[in-house]
Amino acid sequence: KIQIVTFFRKSSRGDFVFSADRLIRLVVEEGLNQLPYTECTVTTPTGHKYEGVRFEKGNCGVSIMRSGEAMEQGLRDCCRSIRIGKILIQSDEETQRAKVYYAKFPPDIYRRKVLLMYPILSTGNTVIEAVKVLVEHGVQPSVIILLSLFSTPHGAKSIIQEFPEITILTTEVHPVAPTHFGQKYFGTD
Length: 189
Prior knowledge:
Blueprint: H1 2-10, H2 13-33, E1 37-43, E2 49-55, E3 59-65, H3 72-78, E4 83-91, E5 98-104, E6 113-117, E7 120-121, H4 125-136, E8 144-151, H5 153-162, E9 167-173, H6 181-186
Parallel strand pairs: 3-4, 3-6, 6-8, 7-8, 8-9
Antiparallel strand pairs: 1-2, 4-5
């Protein structure tokens, strides 16, 4: 598990982005599996009927800027026309208190299921503030699915204590989270 953090620190940016995008795609696909769907019949180009599924209307993504934006393309690759909102939250380095600076959501977000995207969950403070803003906009915590790549036990526990109805999907729970994710992904490290 520490090897993952070491890999992310010592790998080239190209290898880092490639591996991160693979993990993002996996967690996005699992998040989509959690959304409600209806059965439908699809006619293939060869004229054969296939029993498939279709997402119910009313889903959206919300990325917590900046690192959450790394997950947007993975969501769009799976769901081309999904609406994506954004929220900017920054933590004070001394107090670790999170403050909301910007939030832009689809106007009917209160009727949607929300895939909240934030790759590195360390303390949980940023996600808690994001969920509070979503709740202020009428979103029920029970329809929020947090998509994360790495989570600390403390961060996950903090979120669940504050919002027990939220769903958290992550690829890894470990006491050490690679907090430099956004800088390495976007090449600003």
